Structure formats: C-alpha cells, structure tokens
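Memo to structure team: turn this sequence into structure tokens by end of day. - J.P.
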Amino acid sequence: MSAQPAYEPIIGRYVTIEVQGRSYRVFVEEAGQGQPVICFHTAGADSRQWRHIMNDAELTANYRFIAPDMPWHGKSLPPEGFEEEEYLLTTEVYVETVLKLVEALALENPIYAGCSMGGRIALQLALNNPEPFKGFIAIEASDFQPAWYDIDWFHRPDAHGGEMGAALVSANIAPQGPKAERWNTQWMFMQSGPGVFRGDLNFYTKDDSLVGKLGGIDTSEKPVHIMVGTYDMTCTPEDAKRTADQIPGATLAVMEGIGHFPMSENPATFRPHFVEALAKMG
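Reply from structure team:
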C-alpha cells in the first residue's frame, strides 16, 4: 500500500469578484477552522507571506486563515485589457476588493489582518467600513508614509523592476531573521509582475492619507491593534506610535528584531506577537 502524500494543510482555490465594473479572478489560500481571519499581503507580494501562520497546527485548530492574492499579484491575473493600461492601486479599488472578497467568501465576522499596505487599508476599513469585521490587526501600519525613494525605479526599461524591489525590501528586513526566510521574502518581490510593486506604492505613498482622520475610529466594539518591527525604516515604531495615539482605545505592540515583513522574514519571532494580537480581537 502506497503512503499518503505529505501535503501541507493549505488549500488553494479561485473566486471571481467584480470591482468597479471589472471582473477579477482571485486566488485564495486557506487553512484551519473556527474564527475566520482574512490576511492581506504587502505591496508587490502575495499570500505566500502568510504560509507559516497557515501551517501552524496550534493556530489553525481555532482559526480559519484566508489569504488572498490581490488582483495583479501572485496567482491572481490582472483584469482583461490590462495590457493597455497602467496599474495604479487606489484606495477606492482596494477597499472594494477587500469587501467583495469578504462577501464572496461568505465570511461571518472575520478578523482583518494585513501588513504594510494591507495594514494601511486596515485603518481605512476601521474608519469607513468596519461593519463586516470583528476587529483589525494593522501590521507595519501608519496614517501616511511619503516615499523616501523614487517609485519609478521599480518599472523602467533600463532596470529589472523585481530586483530593484528586492533591493528596497532588503533594507527593511531585520538581520536577526533566518537567512532562508529573509531571501524567500525577497524572492517574492523578484517575481512580482511588471509595474505591480510601483502601482502598489502609488497607493501607499501618494494616494492614501489618513492624517487627521483616525480619531473617528470607534474601537469600543471592533478593536484595532497595531504592530511594528524595530527594524522597519518604511514605517518606524515612531510612525506606528503616532498613529496608534490618534485612535482612541487602539493598542500597539513593538516587535524587537523584526523589519517590515514580520510574518515572512522571521515567523518564529512574529508568532507570539500575532497570537497576542488575535487574543485582543475578543
């Protein structure tokens, strides 16, 4: 009798959603059972950033983790006609994409967890569209973060956009992380579609600002927990604290020895912080 395949517990499938009148076929990975947690990746990456959490048997015994590849990312194709346009992510498209995914996947009272641009949109949702969610875990998130770099370097004819993206990413990964995972994190950016990282950074550094607005978030029923790594130079601990201080009732965790991609670059160090974050969601 042949042995059973040693599959990981993560299951992948596709769902089609409509956002602003356009159809998107979105790839979604999931693992676990119980309280749903929908997990969003950083700019220029995909759901692989969440693979360590989704392979954690202790966590998946009580939580159902769902990690989509945003349209244009990973195994999610761009929409029809993409070859004739410039990809520039906007707040409106991002928010509608998240809400349509929650609806299409029939998620009831999910916890939202997102990193970097996924953390920023968590704050947008907490402010303007909190209804479908139980709470928000905003990782490496701030009210606004202007670019200290030229985003056009990530999509130009004389430079490899993926390798340029990985170079930027490398400056935001803490040296304490395992070498293999630091390089795995960079590899995802090397694989990013042409112009996708730049288009995401348009949202992160130009389109989306919550300066002066966060006081309107109500955490009395839907908690907001912000997490930040000490080695993050894109969203520093000072940025995260400034942001948390503007949200009445929000909590903040500063993670030692972690950079901008905690669940991917150093999963073992990130895990206890994430367990604590999940507990804060009630």
